[in-house]
Amino acid sequence: MTSEQRRQFLRNAALAASVAALPRWAWSTPPALQTNPFALGIASGDPTPDGVVLWTRLALTDPAQMLVTHTVRWEVAHDAGFAQIVQKGEAPALPALGHSVHVELQGLLPARWYHYRFMLGDAVSPTGRTRTAPAAGDLPGALRVAFASCQRWEHGHYAAWRHLAADQPDLVLFLGDYIYEYATPKTTTDLARTHSLRHATTLADYRDRYALHKSDPALQLSHATCPWAVTWDDHEVQNDYAAEASRGESPGSAAFLALRSAAWQAFYENMPLRTTSLRGPASATGWDTLQIYRRLRWGRLAHIHLLDSRQYRSWQACRTPEASSAPAVRPADCAELAQPQRSLLGSAQERWLDAGLAADTASAQATRWSVIAQQTLFSPRHYPSGTVPTDAWDGYPAARQRLLQSVARHTPRNTVLLGGDIHQNYVCRVHADAARADSAVVASEFCGTSISSRSGTTQAKVDAIVRHNPHVLLARCDQRGYGLADITPTRWSTTLRVVDDPLRADSGASTLARFVVEDGRAGPQAA
User: Among 225, 255, 292, 353, which is disulfide-ready with 308 (CB 3.0 to 4.6 Å)?
Assistant: First the structure.
């Protein structure tokens, strides 16, 4: 990054931080639009009892319009026809933030559905549907949560999002890999579709990649159906990166930090995130931090701990700097694997999660379901080959055991882990000691498959893994889809939904399996 680029970034950061103070004369007059400014859709996210975040990003094509700040109007109503408007206002769409808009609503009623829309000049966005969380002390009778991850554009159409929207969840948890940084493969056989974008390395590249993914009508429909809570994994930046380290670069290299900064800025611009995620001052290298781990409460029914397993993790064990991906290793040949200080979450986030689990049981009105929503498979996979994959929790056994000890120490009433990343459906019993199948079952795990990304393995290999892992109740590969959790005070029911043909945008979907967790009884049971 040149000195002028540093100065420009800091100017942009200062401008973004003072959005509320911008005088109206600094905003543009309504433009004469030649294209639909809301072609990237709308979204809402991170609901609280009295509010939610509304999001859009203007799709501008006129170079002159792309250089100025635009005034975007917004409305929230009880009805889809906007006859009963509850709140309305204006927000600036800054060029420094890719003309994205983040409106943080307050003063709404708890446990209520609302409709919202944006306007720019004469253009009106589609209508979105969102909702607030229940009041803090309430115990609602039901919550429907969909969880999903991994949506590589070329590997499949997004039919799963269309079916998910039809299931009408209250909340979507997106657990990482919203985009993939790759260019279209040279061999296009068996791809659902292609694109012409290059491998992403700059802010403009990442913005274009989000615009590509967000152009999909099924994904837009799902965003407009209900609020989302999003986190990231690696492909929002680069495959298998770890904190400040990347392939071919020394840790903390200026080149990688500039790439990561661009990717993180684009993530914020394109997600319904609160400004509280913008913690820490911007530096000369750009966006050095985003506060992605956070909590969402659904009254006393559910407390969702949404984690970040990329920003603070240790470099993968026994991985060489030039390796393009994390290796699978034999524990006997990799002493680093067992080092107790190695962490997937970082020490500060580990302490934060421990405090959150303690708070779940701290009063007579304890949380019914403690949900740990994170990126990948938590439970161990003992391979017949004896190797261990180092990019998931298997590569951080001491960190996994610390989390298990936290669960055992605080004994939440019910603990459920959700994950993604591996492009396979896994259902597991979680034991107090990950190395001992005879230890007590302390939690349940549902690791969902991908929306569209291929799994890269075969069912025969997965079946062999299951035979070596008695805690694994179900494992299926190469089926794309999502998970649906119906949560009540007395039961958690997970339905695993899979599409019939990921190469078809109009594909049907079916139920692969259904498992339940009874209140007070750890471990899933086939329904």
Answer: 292
Q: Give φ, ψ of 197 to 5 degrees.
A: -80, 145
- 141-187 pLDDT per residue, tens: 999 999 999 999 999 999 999 999 999 999 999 999 999 999 999 99
The CA distance from 444 to 378, in Å, is 10
Residues in the chain: 527
Q: Rounded to whole angstroms, how far apart are CA atoms 486 and 492?
A: 6
φ/ψ (deg, to 5) at 499: -85, 155
C-alpha 448/C-alpha 377 separation (Å) is 9
**For residue 469, which of 376, 355, 369, 388 has the smallest C-alpha distance?**
388
In angstroms, what CA-CA distances link 420 with 62, 231, 329, 393, 425? Answer: 39, 11, 22, 12, 8
pTM equals 0.93
Q: Rounded to whole angstroms, what are the CA distances from 276 to 293, 357, 459, 469?
A: 11, 22, 43, 41
| Residue closest to 445 by CA, chosen among 404, 478, 477 | 404
Mean pLDDT score across all residues of the chain: 92
Residues 6+ apart with CB under 8 A from 404: 430, 431, 432, 433, 434, 442
